[in-house]
Amino acid sequence: MDPERPVCVPGCSCAVGNEFGEATAEREAARYRRSGPEATTRLLVDALRGGPLGDLNGLTVLDIGAGVGAAHLALLAAGAASAVDVDGSPAFVEVARTEAERQRVSDRVHYETGDFVELAPRIEPADLVVLDRVVCCYPDMRALVGLSAAHARRRYGLVYPRDSWWIRSGAALINGTMRLFRRRLRFFSHRTADVEDVVLSAGLTRRFHRQQLFWQIAVFERS
After folding, report:
1. Residue 92's domain spans which residues?
2. Residues 63, 93 contacting (CB under 8 angstroms)
3. How far is Cα 145 from Cα 50, in angstroms, rounded to an integer?
4. What residues does 160 pair with on adjacent strands?
5. What is the CATH number of the domain that holds 103?
6. For 115-153, what is each residue's pLDDT tens digit?
């Protein structure tokens, strides 16, 4: 097994620690340059904008587990003023930085490498907070979602696995395989109600929800 290959489901952006190295990051960056953001990322961005033509009018973005930066780069292109990219993988931070330079927005993005839960006390709140395929690979959902939701001044967007028995069964199989190969990364499948309870407790209300075969996309708003 390739030690740099993601062990989460295809397309997951959950780069924690150094599990995802340079080969993975470069592969994802090449895919992004060929095809642009994933369909779920495009849906998430449109929902955060309030529609495909929504103007973000200088809002700030916090993108947690940003991967190649697809979500915050799209939000910047739609009018957001600045973004903070937080990622646990130095390799992904580097490719995100390179992509921002390619799109000529590097002066509008600040980068933090590490675990958001640990970094949260020194990261400023933002108008828009994004977790695109991140919750599935973090061991403490309540801490991650609770702290990130508290950082959202206006809207909070998530892409995470659907609440389904077959996804939970797949998670058990993936995790068993990871233990067998002594890999650190685990895949976490959470009940939608559990995730939303944490978000709602932070004072947010769900405004958008869409389900696909594997993923669900949700956007919440602060009243």
Report:
1. 22-222
2. no
3. 22
4. 216
5. 3.40.50.150
6. 999 999 999 999 999 999 999 888 899 999 999 999 999
